[in-house]
Amino acid sequence: MFRVALLATAASAIHILAPAGDPECKMGHRSFSATPESELAVCCPSYCGKCNDYAGCEAVNGQDSQYACCASKVQEKVCENNSSDPYCLGSCDSKSAPCSLGMGATFEKPAETSASEDCGEAVGEFKAECEASVKSVAPASPTGGESQWKGIQERKDAASSADDAKFAKNMDNSGRGGTSTM
């Protein structure tokens, strides 16, 4: 009997700690519009599969779901459009889906960032930093960073030469009706 009471208490504690709403519609599906700044966004329950006026939205899983899954019908029932109705659908801040996410914010493109300004230079800078890192390891030692970097470059050149030779061989074979070995 004590175990049952303990489990019931734990279950109710979890329910109390659950968030009151879903302000970002993470537990459902968000409606999207071509003009988000002029139309209310709504959140439909996850069982709907999506939140728009798709064929069959009014009878998902065999139940009357038009005011849960059809975005235009949910928009009609939200409190922003129907404040006189005591059963209007409230904001997702305080309620789970179906609910209103409010008016969409206008997106403004951010200023260009440093990452996009020097996009082509990033690889070269990374390689230079790698080289400096490797060469800084015991530079005076015969097995130090300088010789290790030389070994890395030799292996890279050998791999590149092997790839070039394999490519040339495949091109010769393909020109004579042969098959590729890649």
SSE layout and pairing:
Elements: H1 2-17, E1 28-30, E2 40-45, H2 66-69, H3 71-77, E3 99-103, H4 114-117, H5 122-135, H6 145-175
Antiparallel strand pairs: 1-2, 2-3
Description:
This protein is mainly alpha-helical and 182 residues long. It has 2 domains: 85 residues, no CATH class; 54 residues, no CATH class. Helix content is 42%, strand content 8%. The chain is built from 6 helices and 3 strands. The protein has a 3-stranded antiparallel beta sheet, covered by helices on one side. Helix 5 crosses helix 6. The longest helix has 31 residues. The relative contact order is 0.10.
Q: Could you name the key traits of this structure?
A:
182 residues, mainly alpha, 2 domains, three-stranded antiparallel beta sheet, 6 helices
Structural class, by secondary structure, is mainly alpha
Strand order of the largest sheet: 1-2-3
Q: Quick one: overall form? A: elongated
The fraction of residues assigned to DSSP E strands is 5-15%
Instruction: Show unreliable segments.
Output: none
Distance between the termini: 69 Å
Q: Radius of gyration, Cα only, in angstroms?
A: 31 Å
Number of domains: 2
User: What is the mean pLDDT?
Assistant: 78
Helical content (DSSP H or I, runs of 4+)? 40-55%
Tell me how many strands there are: 3
N-to-C SSE series? HEEHHEHHH
Tally of helical runs: 6
- Sheet bearing the most strands, described? 3 strands, antiparallel
